[in-house]
Design a protein that fits this description.
Largest sheet: none
Shape: elongated
Length: 153
């Protein structure tokens, strides 16, 4: 009982706290895991084809992450703003934040796609074996359409 004779709210148990934390963290965990999972799956599937193809796929996936990670960080800056507005029962403010995130992703997608293509096109300049660089460019070209959806995650 508190000073005004109302019952005191019991502190959540460790199990309840963990469940609440998991409910909040699970979507973030899935987004972060999926970020790397596409390149991992590509690498696993291509592994039996050949060494050059395997190297090219791994390099292409690394170049994808290298060229998109900064833009993804910029777009993810909207998440706490929208979440805070949603948690404060301010759906209009949350909606505005989410639209701003969409505009950011759209504005960043073209320059990031260009950077990804540019880096993928000049891998031989960075000392990559020409056969691997050529195969990596094929991977890069195939994955170019994934830049915008990646930024929208």
């Amino acid at each position: 009982m508190t000073a005004d004779n109302s019952p005191r709210e019991a502190a959540p148990t460790m199990r309840e706290s963990f469940r609440e934390l998991l409910e909040l963290a699970l979507p973030l965990i899935l987004v972060q895991a999926s970020t790397h999972f596409a390149g991992f799956v590509d690498t696993v599937l291509i592994g039996r084809v050949g060494e050059v193809e395997l190297g090219a796929t791994g390099l292409g996936a690394s170049v994808f992450l290298f060229t998109t990670i900064a833009a993804m960080g910029i777009c993810m800056g909207i998440d706490p703003i929208a979440s805070q507005a949603f948690g404060a029962s301010q759906p209009d403010r949350a909606r505005v934040a989410l639209w701003q995130g969409l505009y950011q992703a759209l504005a960043l997608a073209l320059p990031v796609t260009g950077l990804y293509w540019l880096v993928g096109s000049y891998l031989d300049v960075f000392g990559v074996v020409p056969e691997v660089a050529e195969e990596s460019l094929d991977y890069v070209l195939g994955r170019l359409p994934a830049v915008l959806p990646f930024l929208l995650m």
